[in-house]
Specification:
- The protein is mostly beta strands and 118 residues long.
- The chain has a single domain, classed as Sandwich (Immunoglobulin-like), CATH 2.60.40.
- It contains 1 helix and 9 strands.
């Protein structure tokens, strides 16, 4: 399966959420029944010196290949730069040793414009 590239934009100090749908090589929805996921945001690819921001990943629909990525306002508030990279890795527990990067891309962090809207 080829890695998809999808760039995302996050507004600092706000909650972030996006739902993604994955298809297999035939174009059918990917069955996520045996998968566990991990996703991180880092300043540069391969950077192992910084503490990454980690996505909360929820499987929304196993049979339809849907997952939801989310970050809290606290996590986005801790992103101090403007440009980052991320990927989402899936481990297929049903197939021993199958670890796949499903999607990756750039993250742009924008400052919030409106202040004290509560």
């Amino acid at each position: 399966m080829a890695v998809s590239v999808y760039d995302i934009v996050i507004t600092k100090n706000t909650d972030f959420e996006v739902t993604l749908t994955f298809n297999d090589d035939t174009g059918a929805p990917m069955d996520l029944e045996d998968y566990t996921f991990q996703g991180e945001i880092r300043p540069t690819p391969g950077d192992d010196t910084s503490n990454p921001a980690e996505f909360d990943i929820t499987i929304m629909n196993e049979e339809e290949g849907e997952i939801k990525l989310s970050l809290t306002d606290v996590v986005t508030g801790n992103l101090t730069g403007e440009k980052y990279y991320y990927d989402i890795v899936g481990d297929d527990d049903g197939v021993i040793g199958t670890r796949t990067i499903l999607i990756s891309g750039r993250v742009t962090v924008l400052p919030a414009v409106s202040k004290d809207w509560s």
